[in-house]
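DUF1292 domain-containing protein, Parablautia intestinalis. Tokens?
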Amino acid sequence: MEKIKFTLDTGESVEFYILEQTKLGGKQYILVADTREGDGEALILKEIKERENGESIYEIVDDDTEMSVVAEVFESLLEDVDLM
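Tokens:
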């Protein structure tokens, strides 16, 4: 399982494990968690921009409808995960 470092707007760095990724409607989404296993904090992030250096900019999905659709996809990809 890949671990990735994110830099927040505040300049603070946080690390998350990438649990799964998918593409819907031409947009890239990733499901990340703060722990490898167990009941950790999970977030669904949407790629909003890719930089010239290959790094991407992500934001937390906060629209309820979008969250519901993407969560269903991740739940079907990861049969043992319940996101809602």
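The helical segments are 64-77.
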